[in-house]
Design brief:
Length: 307
């Protein structure tokens, strides 16, 4: 499929399966270069994700899971998710987006003659799709090869190729459901507390960049989150303190270390720690510690000498 990754999307695929109309919206191969990120987003349809090779991670709602070759996961309608390739390894992803419409719920529609067995299987599959757990599992029933079979049918254009493509779409749905049925016996991937994880990343970013003109927007952008989300995160996990107070604390801690350990002037220490000028540092320092930076330096050095 690498020759024409979106070839199957050229087809207008509407599939009648029992009482359902299945409209194929996207049917393609996507390549994630190492480190590529697709921020949080959602779709109005079902999206099936298969990883034929490479490594990465996915965050579904607020839970993070590692991705590797042989895994699949489903993001149902309106489910927020985030995708990222490993920084040292690219990742491929086979995607199928389908809109599933239950025609039996539509008003003023004349009843159709269904194949009862087919309709029962279609209904069971769709109901299970709606309830699938939001975590990756192994492609135990080989749904991934159906993508390649459909592509070959399109490329070779043999007698019955269009029917073969539609049958492969149905097989992807059925085999994904079967994979999760089997996964009930498997353990779920270990996950992390996303609030604590994002808080740690935010603090690490501030610690690494406090000496420059860092803003709350910078931190939010780094974590692919909104400013309000970051603000709530700090208030909840950092004793209700604001970003500006956290940044000031980190800068003051750096100043205190330098006052004791170096012979640099207060003006230079202020600039190294991200303060606009020595006078501004003097004001902030005195307000926080009740003394000037120079007095703090003398006090701490006398203490060390005494010890």
């Amino acid at each position: 499929m690498r020759e024409r990754e979106d070839a199957l999307e050229r087809l207008e695929l509407h599939i009648r399966w029992g009482r359902y109309d299945i409209h194929v919206l996207r049917f393609h191969l996507t390549h994630f270069p190492s480190g590529r990120v697709i921020g949080f987003h959602k779709h109005a349809e079902f999206e099936f994700h298969f990883i034929p090779q490479g490594r990465g991670k996915v965050i579904i709602v607020d839970q993070e899971y590692p991705l590797k070759s042989g895994l699949l996961y489903l993001t149902g309608p309106e489910v927020m998710h985030y995708q990222e390739a490993d920084t040292a390894e690219a990742m491929d992803e086979l995607c199928l987006h389908v809109d599933i419409i239950d025609r039996s719920l539509e008003q003023n529609e004349l009843p159709d003659v269904y194949d009862d067995w087919e309709d029962a299987e279609a209904h069971a599959c769709v109901e299970k799709l709606k309830a699938l757990p939001a975590f990756p599992t192994s492609d135990l029933h080989e749904a991934m090869p159906c993508f390649l079979d459909a592509y070959r049918a399109y490329k070779d254009n043999y007698t019955g190729s269009y029917t073969t493509i539609k049958q492969n779409v149905i097989q992807i749905l059925l085999r994904a459901v079967r994979a999760y049925e089997t996964a009930g016996e498997q353990k779920q991937f270990p996950t992390r507390d996303m609030k604590a994880y994002r808080y740690r990343l935010a603090m690490e970013y501030i610690q690494a960049n406090y000496a420059g003109p860092i803003t709350l927007e910078d931190v939010a952008d780094k974590l692919n989150l909104g400013v309000r989300q970051i603000q709530r995160l700090f208030k909840e996990l950092h004793n209700g303190q604001s970003f500006s107070r956290i940044l000031e604390d980190i800068r003051l801690a750096a100043v205190c270390r330098e006052l004791v350990a170096s012979e640099l002037s207060v003006e230079q220490i202020a600039k190294n720690a991200g303060f606009a000028a020595g006078n501004y540092l003097h004001t902030v320092f005195r307000k926080r510690y009740g003394m000037t930076p120079s007095d703090y330096r003398k006090m701490e050095r006398q203490t060390v000498t005494t010890l």
